[in-house]
Amino acid sequence: MADQLSPEKILGLGFGFWNAKTLLSAVELGLFTILAEAPADAETLRSRLGLHPRSALDFFDALVALGLLERDNGLYRNTAEAALFLDRAKPSYVGQILELANARLFASWDRLTEALKTGRPQSENAAEKDFFAALYADPARLRGFLTAMSGISAGPAKAIAEKFPWTKYGSFVDVGSAQGMVPATVARAHPHLIGAGFDLPQVKPIFDDFIAANGLSDRVTFRGGDFFRDALPGADVIVMGHILHDWDLEEKRHLLANAYAALPKGGALIVYEALIDDERRTNAFGLLMSLNMLIETPGGFDYTGADCQGWMREAGFAETRVEHLLGPDSMVIGVK
Ligand SMILES: C[S@@+](CC[C@H](N)C(=O)[O-])C[C@H]1O[C@@H](n2cnc3c(N)ncnc32)[C@H](O)[C@@H]1O
Questions:
Q1: What pTM was computed for the model?
Q2: 42 backbone dihedrals φ, ψ, rounded to 5°
Q3: Catalytic residue among 190, 245, 254, 324
Q4: Which of 2, 15, 199, 314 is the most buried (most CB within 10 A)?
Q5: What is the sign of the dihedral through the CA atoms of 22, 27, 29 and 35?
Q6: Quick check: keyword Transferase in the entry (predicted)?
Q7: Residue having the nearest C-alpha atom to atom 24 of ligand 1
């Protein structure tokens, strides 16, 4: 038995940070954006990125081995996926979330053991009680965080636009909308809908720019407020994406009650996250996201579809169901 076992998987996981940091540095340097302009040989690429000669070739060839670059006759080019998702000049760029992972999470995760022992967050604003106020005090970090959210919500937004029965409804509000990826995607796919993004007032200019760039300012507006202090704007459908996991159980219940109060009878709440599978065995990304909430927030945690349906029913929702979106993401729908 023992001679059939291999340490390969264990060692691969243990050294996974090598892979992650190589990709994150390439994104930070803008390597994929440069190669999207034209394929380049090693010396041209090295000099454009401002790299020391010692390890440039190893760096580029590691990216080939990791499946992010191709090399033909000494010329490096992006793979099809890297060209589509890692070129900053394209609207399909998802690297904002990797920039955030590189600039903030990589260092904070170094203190995971401390977080596990103490239950205390470890991010750079861990001492602050109000995570978002601390993060948003700096305009550059505000914009960086909000655009990074677009990177993680672009895929689920498309799936929500396709899978939810929008024809039955006339209006929606995306609560904690960030830059507005969900409102923009849903409104673009369903021209009969009127939509709004609800978020902290500091978010307004960044939301407005994004909605205007998408040509949707006539149908999608911004509503500023605090979802712990203010009533939510009324609409037929309320969306909450990656919101509940930021908060502790009491706060989660408060947000669900707030959504219930704002909906008409027959209205629907869509909660989407990297939901943990009900058996808590297979959605590793959802479970690791929950550890990320430990690192980032005072009381946040991720949860299963069954957990969320239970809280929705306690809040008064008559019907609830879970539907898979894509990858690790699923939505829980509650109908009032
Ligand atoms: C993790 S992001 C999720 C963004 C987006 N829904 C998505 O799925 O990518 C959480 C959002 O909640 C907003 N938020 C945090 N506290 C809030 C509050 N008290 N009232 C309103 N919005 C808040 C943040 O500004 C941020 O846009």
A1: 0.92
A2: -60, -45
A3: 245
A4: 199
A5: positive
A6: yes
A7: 176
